[in-house]
Amino acid sequence: MRGLKGKRILITGGASGIGAATADRFLEEGSVVCILDSSAPRREKIARELPALSAVLPCDVTVLSEVQQAVAQAVAKMGAVDVLVNNAGISIRHKFLDITAEEWNRVLAVNLTGVFNVAQETARHMVQRGGPGVVLQMASTNAFLGHKFYADYNATKAGVVQLTRTMALELAPHIRVNAVAPGYVMTPMQRAEYTDEMFEEVNQKIPLRRHAQPQEVAALFAYLASDDAAYITGQVYAIDGGESAGGLASR
Fold first, then answer.
1. What is the pLDDT of residue 38?
2. Domains of the chain: which residue ranges?
3. Cα 128 vs. chain centroid, distance in angstroms?
4. Does 150 qualify as catalytic in the annotation?
5. Which among 29, 36, 117, 250 would be 20 to 30 A from 60, CA to CA?
6. What letters, b where the CB count within 10 A reaches 16 and e where it falls short, cover 163-200?
């Protein structure tokens, strides 16, 4: 990708799944990469697996003071942040009537408030230094299609889509803002929620008959961060093997 060598990248939730694959991809492109993650075991693991990382920092994205400190540390370590990949997120599979207030608040806090916290703090830094900058958010096809058992998750991802579009309008022309909306991706979070039988049932409804690999989503993030995508902002890109192209029959 053009223009990624030497770019300074900040990735939230960067110690596993799509975040870790994205960190690895940017390192391959010659970028400088710092990741934030709330889990000490995951941070230790990714530091061993990707020793070229500039920094692996603790951060709970739901706590504004931690976000402010982590972004400041990332800027101090790398000199600036050119690209934010706002990836951190959680999901809890449960029926709508069984969602507790605590579960609802936690999913919204991580997936929407956390995205806002990191996006705002990083964008402020980008504006203060006069840009240019790129903010990439993790949405989901759940933002557009109804999925049973994920009411709270679906609501947060719809919120991320509208947050992305609004940021793109307000932060142009110096900061580009886009979102990536994966369908089913083979991540530890997905693996923990689905049995083998459920995986097979889902795959039969996807035109390409499989889940995405985290590296495939990482490649889309790399493209959108690159100079090749310099005229793209305010957009949401589905990467779902064709799942959202169909109607009820494909559901």
1. 97
2. 8-250
3. 24
4. no
5. 29
6. bbbebbeebeeebbbbbbbbbbbbbeebeeebeeeebe
Handedness of CA 128, 129, 133, 139 (dihedral sign): negative
Distance, in Å, from the CA atom of 139 to the CA atom of 180, rounded to the nearest integer, reads 6
pTM for the structure as a whole: 0.94
Map residue 195 onto helix, strand or coil.
coil
CATH number of 8-250: 3.40.50.720
Neighbour count for residue 207 (Cβ, 10 Å): 12
Bigger pLDDT: 210 vs 162: 162
CA dihedral 53, 38, 158, 242 (to 10 degrees): 50
Candidates 153, 184, 194, 223; catalytic one: 153
Measured in whole angstroms, the distance separating CA 144 from the mean position of its chain's CA atoms is: 17
Amino acid (1-letter code) at residue 184: Y
Q: CA-CA distance, 228 to 226, in Å (whole number)?
A: 5
% of the chain residues with pLDDT over 70: 98
Band (pLDDT 50/70/90 cuts) for residue 247 is low
Angle at 63 between CA 60 and CA 67, to 5 degrees: 70
Q: Are the CB atoms for 78 and 2 separated by under 8 Å?
A: no
Instruction: Give the C-alpha separation, 34 to 57, whole Å.
Output: 8
Q: Is 193 helix (H, G, I), strand (E, B) or coil?
A: helix
- For the segment 129-176, what is each residue's pLDDT rounded down to a tens digit? 998 999 999 999 999 988 899 999 999 999 999 999 999 999 999 999
Q: Is the pLDDT of residue 251 over 70?
A: no
Nearest in space to 11 (alpha carbons), one of 159, 118, 97, 99: 118
